[in-house]
Amino acid sequence: MRTVVLTMKASVIEMFLVLLLTGVHSNKETAKKIKRPKFTVPQINCDVKAGKIINPEFIVKCPAGCQDPKYHVYGTDVYASYSSVCGAAVHSGVLDNSGGKILVRKVAGQSGYKGSYSNGVQSLSLPRWRESFIVLESKPKKGVTYPSALTYSSSKSPAAQAGETTKAYQRPPIPGTTAQPVTLMQLLAVTVAVATPTTLPRPSPSAASTTSIPRPQSVGHRSQEMDLWSTATYTSSQNRPGADPGTQRQDPSGAAFQKPVGADVSLDCKIDLSFLIDGSTSIGKRRFRIQKQLLADVAQALDIGPAGPLMGVVQYGDNPATHFNLKTHTNSRDLKTAIEKITQRGGLSNVGRAISFVTKNFFSKANGNRSGAPNVVVVLVDGWPTDKVEEASRLARESGINIFFITIEGAAENEKQYVVEPNFANKAVCRTNGFYSLHVQSWFGLHKTLQPLVKRVCDTDRLACSKTCLNSADIGFVIDGSSSVGTGNFRTVLQFVTNLTKEFEISDTDTRIGAVQYTYEQRLEFGFDKYSSKPDILNAIKRVGYWSGGTSTGAAINFALEQLFKKSKPNKRKLMILITDGRSYDDVRIPAMAAHLKGVITYAIGVAWAAQEELEVIATHPARDHSFFVDEFDNLYQYVPRIIQNICTEFNSQPRN
Q1: Which of 393, 517, 532, 580 is 20 to 30 Å from the Cα of 429, by its Cα?
Q2: Integer-rounded Cα radius of gyration of the chain
Q3: What is the 3-state secondary structure (H, E, C) of 557-582?
Q4: pTM for this structure?
Q5: pLDDT tens string 400-437
Q6: In CATH terms, are 272-466 and 473-653 the same topology?
Q7: What does DSSP say about strands 100-108 and 131-137: parallel, antiparallel, or unpaired?
């Protein structure tokens, strides 16, 4: 009996083992049948920038040909998120120009990015940027799941062209507003304010100090501030529990920023005004709104209208774009509504390019420019430009544009090495006496510039930047009407005067023209205040009648000083253009010296029998630039271009004070 029991126990154990082994085998077979989903590496194009991709870490496949210089890269080892992902991969040496797979990891923004040449790619330098990234070999870390489909900050991502699936996160809409895409990095920034930040592994010694936080940190003053609260709730959001102290920014007085009050400026102001506003990515949406508020306050203070100031707006980033020109909105209410609708474009801070754009395109008759109104440009700059402004500004000033700069939050000492053009504001304006430039330490003090700005742009007597060689003078022609000239030649002289006059911009606020004819006696043909338009001046020149008589040039100069230039405006350049065909019967030395001492720039043009030594005495020093001689009246026309050129060369060489 005992033997039978033992045998039965052995059989049960054997059956159990068989069942167990069968189950294990079955589970193995089942496991073999259940296949894990295969990871698909997303493909992107060469022009995709890291900042467009929300994912903090991802693997992508780059195509061939990303070594091309048109795919811009900013930085070395650690790259600004404004860079081409694949271009940076080639620059770093992780890829060659044939393409391949890479691992991209987002890191904190930097205070500056140094350009360098590496692996056939020239990277560029860049001031501080809100976010960075590094490129590593595509070796997935154990336990980390990488996305097969990338998430982009905009549904119109360039990656869509490569067949990539795109997604955009939409924040909950604030009542009364339109919902805008918010990046994952922005959401992390809000979360980190009340949570302990996690750290990312250090990719390399060169990037060791830049990889500790998976969100853009405040780097200098150009870090992008989070924009999840409206301006109306700004004060409370700054003081919310757990808020990052670095973002609790206040006015120097200690009070949180409030909407600037009206400037209460009552001025007779007729200007054509263009605001160049900073739309670069690093300015952030909240500061962009503060900037728009200043524009709205200026529009209110100026009392926009056809009989007074007109105002347009151009936004710059990578490239400038006109939001509206001078004639689009002709009252303050409509203008303020239009300003409120302006959206930020993003990009770099190419101020020089924007100034060139305004010079060539903005102040035209088609855009509402008025010939009698000074042209004024107010440029707002956060930090410093990413291109040079000096040459573009010089050309703008020579085109008659009056440039004002408002700079906000300049470079800290450790950031000055990244400034493209030191002292850029002083190089841009026509006078470095502080009249044309305003600086504020904080964006929340920007409203304090309202009153001084409005008063300055409307002070037309001090708008020296808008004065050029063609629109800033009182020009008095002193014409020899002696018997030796003759009627026919006198008409030729008048044609010469007409040809010179046509080159200038004529109005009561621009260049003004007067004329004196002389023989033994002198006659005022018309004064500076007689005619204020070019057609009227040209008609007046035609009507001048030939007098005939002797030649008293010295007396004519004295007469012109008393009857013409004594009534010249203080802010006008005084130019005397004297035309004679013979030697004077009286002395010219003392009258000529009197003209020079009174600041009258004198050009002496002699014809036929004119005395060369007298011309040189009459002319302003150096005589070679201010005295001319022709042997026949019919050759006078040849000297028009040279005289205009000398007038402008002399004007443009004036020292800036």
Answers
A1: 532
A2: 37
A3: HHHHHHHCHHHCCCCCEEEEEEEECC
A4: 0.46
A5: 788 999 999 888 888 888 889 988 988 888 777 788 99
A6: yes
A7: antiparallel
